[in-house]
Amino acid sequence: MSILVNKNTKLIVQGITGRDGSFHASKMKAYGTNVVGGVSPGKGGQEVDGIPVFNTVSDAVKATGADTSIIFVPAPLAADAILEASEAGVSLVISISEGVPTLDMIKVTPYLKKNGTKLIGSNCPGLITPGEALVGILPGNIFLKGGVGLMSRSGTLTYEMVHQLTTNGLGQSTCVGIGGDPVAGLYFQELLQMFQDDPETEAIVLIGEIGGDAEEQAAQYIKENVTKPVVAFIAGQSAPEGKRMGHAGAIISSGTGTAEEKIAAFEAVGVPVARRPEEIPALLIKMLKK
Amino acid sequence: MSILVNKNTKLIVQGITGRDGSFHASKMKAYGTNVVGGVSPGKGGQEVDGIPVFNTVSDAVKATGADTSIIFVPAPLAADAILEASEAGVSLVISISEGVPTLDMIKVTPYLKKNGTKLIGSNCPGLITPGEALVGILPGNIFLKGGVGLMSRSGTLTYEMVHQLTTNGLGQSTCVGIGGDPVAGLYFQELLQMFQDDPETEAIVLIGEIGGDAEEQAAQYIKENVTKPVVAFIAGQSAPEGKRMGHAGAIISSGTGTAEEKIAAFEAVGVPVARRPEEIPALLIKMLKK
Amino acid sequence: MKIHEYQAKEIFSRYSIPVTREELCFTVEEVSSATQKLGLPVVVKAQVLAGGRGKAGGVKLAKSLDEATTAATAILGMDIKGYTVEKVLVAEGVRFNNEVYVGLTIDRKSKSVIFMASREGGVEIEEVAKENPDAILKFPIDPDLGMTPFLARKIAFSLFTEFSLVKQAADMFQKLYRIFMDTDASLVEINPLVITDEGNLLALDGKMNFDDNALFRQSAIEAIMEPDEDEKVELDAKSKGLTFIRLDGSIGCMVNGAGLAMATMDMIKLYGGEPANFLDIGGSSSPKKVIDAMNLILSDPKVKVVMINIFGGITRCDDVARGLVAALEQIKVEIPIVIRLAGTNSKEGLEILKQAQLPVVETMTQAAQKAITLCETISHL
Amino acid sequence: MKIHEYQAKEIFSRYSIPVTREELCFTVEEVSSATQKLGLPVVVKAQVLAGGRGKAGGVKLAKSLDEATTAATAILGMDIKGYTVEKVLVAEGVRFNNEVYVGLTIDRKSKSVIFMASREGGVEIEEVAKENPDAILKFPIDPDLGMTPFLARKIAFSLFTEFSLVKQAADMFQKLYRIFMDTDASLVEINPLVITDEGNLLALDGKMNFDDNALFRQSAIEAIMEPDEDEKVELDAKSKGLTFIRLDGSIGCMVNGAGLAMATMDMIKLYGGEPANFLDIGGSSSPKKVIDAMNLILSDPKVKVVMINIFGGITRCDDVARGLVAALEQIKVEIPIVIRLAGTNSKEGLEILKQAQLPVVETMTQAAQKAITLCETISHL
Question: What ipTM does the predicted assembly reach?
Fold first, then answer.
């Protein structure tokens, strides 16, 4: 099982002839992901690392039956690439592109909803089901197959967490980096539901950040719907008010979205919150023993 | 039963303080329709023929629980009025306004779909469930309660038909004027389904026009889904190619949408087509006796 | 409502869509100097608001100045489907190696604007539609998204293989959509769109129609419209609250409602007559409207009989009858009239008409038959 | 990114939103002549990119020319939250009888632009949000529809009862939305929006923030931006591929990834230290980036220790280590450095660093603790 991607995933790579696209297409293929094609307008007919390239997503989907697409195009073109994937019938789109204008993402959202297309990102590291499919820029080698479902608003912090899990023998069912942009695709709530429904997932790690109220909503959702153990970590406890901490897009303003509030929200519903990344494995083991 | 409107319909009238709006609001009320309110920005708090007026549809719905709205605003404002009704949670909107730009209707369509709002029109005479609710500009007195469901792209031609039915003792369950604009709300197919599902409707009269292929699609739908007797009439058999016949918006172009094609399509699926309006009652009676 | 080729291409130019260099000319002299300015060869094209001008001889290639003036002499003043050619467009003759068709219109079924593309450009698209419908690709445009770059590219890839052409085409298709939306068009068409020998896309022809209902917010379009004689009459009628279309028959029709008006014409035809017009007087009983309508019908010398068909709904028949009587007292009608009146209070209405000694019948069939009989009687006189 | 009040109001004016008559002044003399031109009373307002200037004394009403120049003298050069006031806006003093708040921003939850309206205008909206959240009405705007006339009217009716004001407001709200979309704003705010004694709406103040990610297509906005000192440093860092934010502590941080950078700062704080900055160097191992990052950190005299925290993912730790060594050979660092390296090939990486005699640790906790200890040691010297 696992969620969202597995060994049956048929992946295409939009922007496959670009620097990042070609690099990560090869990495994903090497990991064992079923990369069935790539898209690059005007490069149809070429190959990248043995992967056939098409002019349009529509052509690629027709030729390969792809159901998932990962996007590596420059930020100004990302929204259009997401729409193209959705229109072509792809059911899951992962947008890695960093720096996509917020209004572009707002424009994209209702169309995806209408088409029933799931989106992860933009500005995210992607996701992985260890041993089955890597769809993103995550370093595949740090992951271990197992029962922990992980979701995170951050990139390298996720790797840090996974490293802690793996070195402590806690394997992962699926790890999803949802990205930190103000307007993004799948969020904690949807993923909590999926992990809750996934028989392979035994426990859930949620890595949040300051800004917004996604964590507060997640806490509420956990209280009402999630029976599996959940542990959390919130980055940005030390961030000063009114400052935007880099690409994560985290903003603290007017007393909402602070780390303290988020931690309190989780602890109020019985979700322990690690103060240091190193604490996560022990907390998990404790929860699993209960 | 009947379809779309009945004695439980709670109707508001958008544009109630205008000439047409106030006139028909009174007519509908006099017929017995449950007209619970009207909308006219800036006239909130007033009354028209005892009907309370509100500034916004939202206010009107909150105060009255209205589920249906009829629109009598000038054409340039009609699309916005339709959207306002949909946003306020009205589930059925009847737009009488004539001369609404086609691109406005195209803009409106996906929003209504998203909200699950049903639209009839624009540029239509409305609908009536005889003895229960008149929602439109139809002359209530010519209708008779009974078992014939009628749908039509035309206004006065509908009255002509209903006159024929009523004088021959054939009462109607519901009569719907869907309007003749190129882009409109509910069309034959949706209404055929409703009449098919309505236990009170025993037979169906469909009045089509040249232009478009709604009749051809209706014929196909009847073949596959409708078991009740259907008879049809097509206006515009004599219309020359390339001419637009008035507000009905009927255009013949490049051999599609001619009366001959439509008649052939109906007859091919066993739907008799009257050549003269007067023939409709006899055809119906014949079908009902089968 | 339509505009001329040269007007459509002026709009295209404003959106940076490449069109042929060209000049509008009203005289042979102007054609001569335009030809010298543009350089040979040139194409001389009749500017009329009718289709099929090519077949009618309204488009000629000229390889010399002489040929250009000869063509202009032939075309100016020519009659094409009832339109007199008053101006010609002189356009540079361009060498090209491929013609495609692209067009945008309204699609009733998907309730959206639809982009049509065909590799079989240059001929009437209606013929392609009839003979080889699969050769026309159709792309409905999501109203919420508009013409996205990816869709424009997808369409472009369906027409061209070379990427430089795909890029030009995708850019052009987005502009065409913007034109469509900005002007409330009902049709925007380039046929043919060609690839020049230099590898560039170029619009050789252009066609635009507009949504009458949106003219109120399209003053720039309204300003450049040139209604022909028929359209002038229709517009004039519209300003009086009437919807009027002139046809070729001899029985003038006055009806309330478009659907009933069509059905009335159908009845006339069914019994062997020919309607002289479509005329919808709408839903009021005002004598003024009846007078205007009657004048409109009588302005056509072909009309031998007038058939009035009114169904009284909200407006009661007795009111309609009084309106008719008042109107017909004020206007002198020399030809026979047949009136059919039905609906609410029809008895009272018919009584009023009978007292005014107007000829009334009760059904549409009777009205049509009587009108045709009268018409034939007059024709045989 | 922010712009000044006067710049926001210039944009409002371009969209025909009524704002106070006003002039931007850099000197007391300019304030004097602006006051004479505008007529008394006037309001002299500091133009700084910081909130709370009213509380800081940066806004003064002047009923005489003398008061105006006195106010200008006081405000020009004033320090507001670390910003020096270099210019003031002199605006006509307007009599009004009602203040409301209106603003547009991005709503993460509904994934749309949201319109906020409150009858409690004039005060900081954050305070209203805290003390009386129900006083702020929120209207999410459907991205496919935009600000429809009906929605603008609905919002306007929630603020005003008089219909003439409702009409003015509805028109204004549609324009504000257009401004938001046209400029890729992240905040557009009028606070207060007042009703003048003449019964007209007038924007007394204006505020706009913009989406950094969209600046590439907003050259007009980019052109009028005035980054402050901190922002200049941040922009300069961005041009080098670094995300940098200056803070007040003494431990300089260099981390790959924003989330990890935040977590690193959290660890420092957890163990009693204070980070001097947020610095995300992204995912490459190039020595150039490390040098740029180190120079950026060392440019802050408050920094006493540098803590480097790298998690090797796609970029392997041994490559990172080689990059660090190469960088630190080229740049002279006089203060202590603590390096934590983990992830892919961390053993090899740590070995390389040890051989280069760089101080390495294996966990974030160790790194933070060591950095703090070093920092305290230095402070006690």
Answer: 0.92
